[in-house]
Design brief:
Blueprint: H1 3-17, H2 54-61, E1 66-71, E2 77-85, H3 89-96, H4 102-105, E3 109-118, E4 121-130, E5 133-144, E6 149-154, E7 162-173, E8 181-191, H5 197-221
Amino acid sequence: MSARSALSRALVCACFALGLLSAAPSFAADASKPHPHQGVAQKFRDPKPSALSADESAKLLAGQAVRKQVRYGDAGGRGVSIMDVKATPDKIWSVILDFGSYPKWIDQLSGCKVLNKTGSHIFVEFQLKVLGIGVQYWIDHTYNKEKGSLTWQLDYSKQSDLDDSTGYWLVYPAPDHPGFTRVEYTVDIRVSGWVPSSIEDMLAKKGLEQATGWVKKQAEGA
């Protein structure tokens, strides 16, 4: 890191610590420019159900979520959240694919808009406000109804505030739990250099905690 970039990051972190970024817009996002790279995080092309221990299976049968996290040094991390939902797969997909309603259901998400649908691809713009800092990014989703999956990666044709983000939703009948559908969510987030590490931790940890919860609430509540 150059002395100038190190100083810039230090100033951003200092302002953040002093609470001076409460109304700050996103710093680097630019839909007119391509992302600096074509991906650094693991991509999920054909996700499979997670292997579970006996204790984890018991938690799901008891109505609890199973959550795991895997970090990759200072570069980011991946988490998985699993929950059994008392709703049909079609009902659950109607919730997951209702991107326009996400800001009503998910904390810190201030905007979510479908920009384009091409074949199995759904291109969506997301806007977060985390600890007063704006984070804007674009995601290319691939929906495979036959396999019960929605995978994603950044839309690398646009410059996002996130350095990278990949993940998936997996929806399938819950084994040994009649009338329930198992929902799995995983995400690998890599933040850009200017974003404080506390933002990355919140996006990874808080997002993982909330993920299957808001889907369960909407699918079962309706």
